[in-house]
Target: Inner membrane transporter RhtA
Amino acid sequence: MTAFALDDPFDRRPGLPGPGGLLRTAADSIPPSGLVLLAIFSVQIGAGFAKELFTALPPSAVVFLRIAAGALIMAAVARPRLKGMSWRDWAVGLGFGATLALMNLTFYEALARLPMGVAVAIEFLGPLGVAVAASRRRLDLLWVALAGLGIALLAPWGQAETVSWAGIGFALVAGACWAGYILLSAAAGQRFPGTSGLSFAMIASVVVIAPVGVATGGADLLQPELLLIGIGVGLLSSVIPYSLELQALRRMPKQVFGILMSLEPAAAALIGVLLLNEILHLQQWAAIGCIVAASLGSTRSSRSR
Model:
């Protein structure tokens, strides 16, 4: 995931610590591994609250609320500069934004049809595929096989009451978009300073998702309680984890960060049990374990290379 900054834009008076300085001081007192775990659980709690919103709004409308809330905060903190951008910069930024919108939309559609842990585990095949595709080691075939076993265990062979083929399809598309998000994030990082590339992408993603979100949500989007929950989802799913990840990456190796992030499917399953009462079968836990093990293995192989 791409990190989000809460630093310099807030610290404007050298003699007095601003909100960014206070947040950094608080973050510095937490070990970097703790920051990563907090970021993981923040994302999954945000997804849990988003799924609760599905009883009042369709997934596309919830996605619109989440991205719009995140984009407003991002634009205030890291406003992108459009002057002087080349057509290639525009292409990368707009492609980044469209991928971000499609990734969130398909993931939320999967979330509406699957338990949280299952949806996140399948989506995690995207970054796993990027890691394995960059390798030519035979050992990485083991991680592909483990991931394939996980998908086979998750397929609804007689378990259509908790897992649907449509949900699996949406999760696989979300995973493919996540892989594209990783590649486009790297390209945007080379063309945009700081986090302005992510800010530009989030603004573009709002434009992409707005027609669908507004059409499906309608007047319900203006209900104050739904707006507040949507803003909370945006904070928990985007702003807070991006901030924590950025602080963690400054104090720990990227490989260790990647290993910790591999725990995300397990964290999603745990939040699903605690927040949504989504009790998984033993077979589903085994499938999630296979995908987590595949992600851990590919990350460790990358570190050794």
About this structure: The chain has 13 helices and no strands.
